[in-house]
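From the methods appendix. Each design record in this collection lists the tokenized structure first, followed by the designed amino acid sequence. Records were kept in a plain field format so they could be parsed without special tools. The example shown here is representative of the layout used throughout.

RECORD:
FOLD TOKENS (149 positions):
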């Protein structure tokens, strides 16, 4: 069993996808929703030094374009975060990182989209789940889970 590393990749510029989703959810009647952000989420299980791995993986251009992305290894503290992942995890990304790019320390890799909701009110988590089911996740081939509790 190795160490796990979470990596969050977001755009430096305003995210048109998140802006459109926010507007759509408000038009669907979710007036409590104040903001919505989107990040690409990676979960790596590695067998080596985590600091060295973080420094190297943050520079891999198939994951992070330095001209348009920012990288963080800490989750946001504000809001309800829900991770949407495909049910079938392809091994393509893991194989590419290990065999083509030389990241032999990677034992496994998962990828998803992390949506963070800024919602006013006591039932923020329930509302975030409902919005995810209605717009942000396709239940036929994706699953979701609340990342912060």
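DESIGN:
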């Amino acid at each position: 069993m190795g160490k796990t590393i979470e990596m969050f990749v977001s755009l430096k510029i305003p995210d048109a996808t998140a802006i459109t989703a926010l507007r759509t959810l408000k038009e669907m009647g979710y007036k409590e929703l104040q903001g919505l952000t989107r990040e690409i989420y990676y979960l790596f299980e590695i067998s080596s030094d985590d600091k060295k791995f973080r420094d190297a993986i943050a520079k891999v251009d198939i994951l992070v374009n330095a001209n348009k992305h920012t990288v963080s290894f800490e989750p946001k503290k504000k809001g309800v975060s829900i991770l949407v992942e495909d049910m079938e995890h392809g091994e393509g990304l893991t194989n590419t990182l290990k065999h083509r790019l030389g990241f032999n320390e990677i034992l496994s890799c998962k990828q998803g989209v992390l949506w963070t909701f800024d919602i006013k009110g006591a039932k923020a988590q329930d509302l975030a789940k409902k919005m995810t089911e209605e717009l942000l996740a396709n239940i036929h081939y994706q699953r979701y889970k609340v990342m912060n509790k």
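APPENDIX NOTE: The two ends are 25 Å apart (CA to CA).
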